[in-house]
Amino acid sequence: MSPANLHIVNEPPPIGRRGRIILWTAMIVGLTGAGLCFAYKVAEFIYTIGSDDVKGFADVPVTVYFVVALGWAFLLAWAFLTGKFAHAEQAKFDMIAKEEEYERLGE
User: Fold this and answer.
1) Is the pLDDT confidence value at 3 over 60?
2) For a disulfide at 15, which of 19, 34, 61, 74, Cβ 3.0-4.6 Å?
3) Share of the chain above pLDDT 70, in %
């Protein structure tokens, strides 16, 4: 059986218009809130670096955090631009088809 002939047995019902609106609203509100909090933390860090109160308190750890976060952002952009997210479900169908082939051959 080829992967193209396989189908999902317990396919969930499609999300209605109301469900999509709730989903998109939650995503937009959540991402906006997270973005604002992150921007606040960055501004607070920049203020702390220039302040004499806690000079040098978190320079290295936060700088390392930003470098690592930038690396992950570049990795995500590379994966998206090179098509690594295309056909993400294909491996599942290939594995099911291979398992059926093994069972048919008696292995």
Assistant:
1) no
2) 19
3) 83
Which range marks the domain in which residue 71 is found?
A: 3-105
Please give the Cα distance from 101 to 95 (Å, whole number): 10
- The label of the residue with tokens 């606040």 reads 40
Q: What is the C-alpha separation between 83 and 50, in angstroms, rounded? A: 42
Tokens of 46: 């920049």
Sign of the alpha-carbon torsion through 23, 24, 27, 32: negative
Q: Please give the pLDDT value at position 47.
A: 79
Residue 8 clears pLDDT 70, i.e. is over it: no
Measured CA to CA, the distance from residue 107 to residue 97 in angstroms comes to: 14
DSSP annotation of 3: G
Global pTM?
0.47
pLDDT value of position 45? 78
Which candidate, 87, 101, 45, 92, places its Cα nearest to that of 69? 45
User: How many structural domains are present in the chain?
Assistant: 1
Q: What is the largest CA-CA distance in the chain?
A: 74
